[in-house]
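Dear H.,

Thanks for agreeing to be a second pair of eyes. The structure we're designing against is below in token form, covering all 97 positions.
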């Protein structure tokens, strides 16, 4: 199952409208579900990134489409990581020559 880890930094607009963030997070979770995935985790973090979301089950195309929609709203800038489970990693290693 595809897992994306989405790292987000608030923009000036995003911090100005931070009181609306909980509703935006709920809307994002619903959007992910509408694209066939699920937001399995969301965190407000201290440090380099302001938020971290974990989404599962999206195709690469659906994930990219979601990120474009999210970014175009102007509240966050994203960096996305594709993540693999320990089992998936072990299968990849087995295929090494």
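And this is the sequence the design step returned. I haven't edited it by hand at all.
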């Amino acid at each position: 199952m595809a897992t994306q880890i989405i790292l987000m930094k608030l923009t000036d607009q995003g911090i100005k409208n931070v009181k609306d963030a909980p509703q935006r997070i709920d809307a994002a979770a619903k959007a992910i579900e509408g694209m066939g995935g699920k937001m399995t985790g969301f965190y407000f973090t201290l440090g380099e990134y302001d938020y971290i979301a974990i989404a599962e089950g999206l195709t690469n195309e659906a994930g990219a489409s979601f990120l474009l929609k999210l970014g175009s709203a102007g509240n966050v800038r994203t960096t996305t990581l594709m993540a693999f489970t320990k089992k998936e990693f072990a299968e990849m290693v087995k295929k090494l020559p």
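Two observations from my side: The longest strand covers residues 3-10. The mean pLDDT is 96.

Warmly,
E.
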